[in-house]
Amino acid sequence: MASAKVRAEVLRKLLRAGARSRIERLVDRLHPPDIAAMLTELAPEESRAVVDVLFSAHRAARTLRELPGELLPGILDVLPDKQVVEMLERLPPDDAVGFLEVLPEERRLRVTGGLPVTRKSELERLLSY
Length: 129
Fold this sequence. Notes:
Order of helices and strands: HHHHHHHHHH
Shape: elongated
């Protein structure tokens, strides 16, 4: 199987060519841990494009929770608050709290403010532990 570096280079070429349908097919064939490994090889703007594809396929949350902890903040930094809110709504509570913990406090407050009241309360309760 191809390494994350090789996949990342193929993905870069597809991104430069604007071949979104081919990017979607490539990402669709990979498991979340493989995509997460590939994301670690990409520049932030490249990662953002791939995460957009993952969002359209409803796979972003599952994939991003596979990222090593030190890389997650960098990926979350390039995502708009609305996309982070969407992920938090899809993730199990423990995983959602893990995402919230890496956000700066100001952004965490903005993001949780976009959640439904019951979900926000649940996550805030878990964050307090």
